[in-house]
Amino acid sequence: xxxxxxxPGEPRRPHGPRDPGDAWVVAPTGEKYWGRxxxxxxxxxxxxxxxxxxxxxxWSHFGDTWALPGGARHEGESARDGALRxxxxxxxxxxxxxxxxxxxxxxxxxxxxxTVVADVTAPFEPVISDPESxxxxxxxVDDVDDLPLHPGFAASWPSLRAALDVRPxxxxxxxxxxxxxxxxxWKDRSGAAERLLTRLSALAVSGIDATALxxxxxxxxxxxxxxxxxxxxxxDLRTDPVRVVRAPGSxxxxxxxxxxxxxxxxxxxxxxxxxxGLAARVEALGATVHGTRWLxxxxx
Length: 300
Description:
Layout: E1 2-4, E2 24-26, E3 32-34, E4 39-46, E5 50-56, E6 66-67, E7 70-72, H1 79-91, E8 98-107, E9 112-120, E10 133-139, H2 151-163, E11 169-173, H3 174-179, H4 189-206, E12 208-209, H5 210-213, E13 219-220, E14 223-228, E15 243-246, H6 251-262, E16 269-272, H7 276-283, E17 288-290, H8 292-298
Parallel strand pairs: 4-9, 11-14, 11-16, 14-15, 16-17
Antiparallel strand pairs: 1-2, 2-3, 4-5, 4-7, 5-6, 5-10, 8-9, 8-13, 12-13
């Protein structure tokens, strides 16, 4: 491959200095890909209005088509951060108005493109803020195929659309997981719970590999619920984005209740426990059960 800077005078966003990532990656066979360090785009999904799409200006690469707001990643920038930054620059997407649900990566070896699919958590109106857009629009999911789509987006849209109905959640039997790690939890249950919750919070932010969840795409950011019981309930720790449930009585009963609460809106629901009795109860509600080793292998 070769790295080819934009042509002199090539129109690009006028705001701020050009980043080293703003360059073409050219394959030996001549294909060109924008973004020296790869590229990323945001598929924002509003439950009422559909997905946010950008009508690309005619002079852009594959111009006069509809695609996602996005662009070249900066050096050392994560795909999610790049997608949020680019969609903010191109479409005025507020970073605190969306919640990432999953990532899907197209990797051609010399270059990669990551689609970050995110749920809109606070309604907003997109704003054209650079010369690369003719229009921005919320498009109902069923109408996307009727538009002239960017070839890359057109190729990925069927699999992305199929995954839009998937909303995974993970419920953790904290007492059971703690008991599987010989780190002195029997002396300080609250401290052991705090250590586990800190790692769970990091996992919720970094996400879980799709293969570990048995799902399509590349990486998912499931809802995570941690159920505490007994002395562990004394933990006083900010655990965003993990939801902490302090069981008023039986921890098993609280986990069953949590699965019932998740059921209508979230699927699949994964319960982490090695307790066979609890496993049978939540499986009867449609949940999938993984033992504690599964979670420990995912934790950072």
